[in-house]
Design a protein that fits this description.
5 helices, alpha+beta, 7 strands, four-stranded antiparallel beta sheet, three-stranded antiparallel beta sheet, single chain
């Protein structure tokens, strides 16, 4: 039997095989949802939208990389828009955002809370992948809300003289951990 239900929350409609928010639409009600579904060509996904805005009105998207199931902080993007991407979050325009990111990178358990960091460690074990990444936020009650986790997230150095150079020591930790993983599995 087909279950019919009323959509009571805002919904997200995303084309299959899309990335980086391409084609993603937030629909506030059934009329917008119907219009978005009719406009789609091909398969896609529909999921509930969860407003993850923090008390200060900003949205935060944290990213950790897992190497040998252990989490390593990679970045924090802070945006006034619900669809948060590092490249368009205004991280270069606001020093307070980079300062908050630097605190997260330096001591993620202190910034997120011990329970949240433990949840991320458990996520790494649960994914059970040699290499993966996860994008997430913290809900007001401290719960980790995972947006996405997969084995294809990239970690890369920033320009050593650029405004994001503060990230490079943490990127290097990820690269070094990956080197140790390779050495463990493929000793010379």
């Amino acid at each position: 039997a087909l279950a019919v239900f009323q959509v009571g929350l805002a919904m997200l409609v995303r084309p299959a095989a899309s990335h980086g928010g391409a084609g993603l639409a937030r629909c506030a009600d059934q009329a917008e949802l119907g219009a978005a579904l009719r406009a789609r060509q091909g398969p896609g996904y529909v999921s509930a939208y969860r407003d993850c805005r923090a008390a200060d009105g900003y949205y935060r998207k944290y990213r950790v990389m897992f190497v040998d199931r252990q989490p390593y902080p990679y970045h924090l993007a802070i945006s006034s828009h619900w669809m948060v991407h590092y490249h368009c979050a205004g991280m270069l325009d606001a020093s307070w955002k980079r300062e908050e990111e630097a605190r997260f990178l330096a001591d993620p358990p202190a910034e997120l809370g011990g329970a949240a960091w433990s949840a991320l460690e458990a996520l790494g074990r649960r994914l059970d992948l040699d290499y993966a990444g996860a994008d997430f936020t913290l809900l007001p009650d401290g719960t980790v809300f995972v947006f996405e986790a997969n084995a294809t997230m990239l970690a890369h150095h920033e320009r050593p003289d650029g405004p994001l150079a503060h990230k490079n020591p943490y990127v290097q930790r990820i690269i070094d951990a990956f080197g140790r993983l390779l050495e463990k599995h493929c000793p010379r």
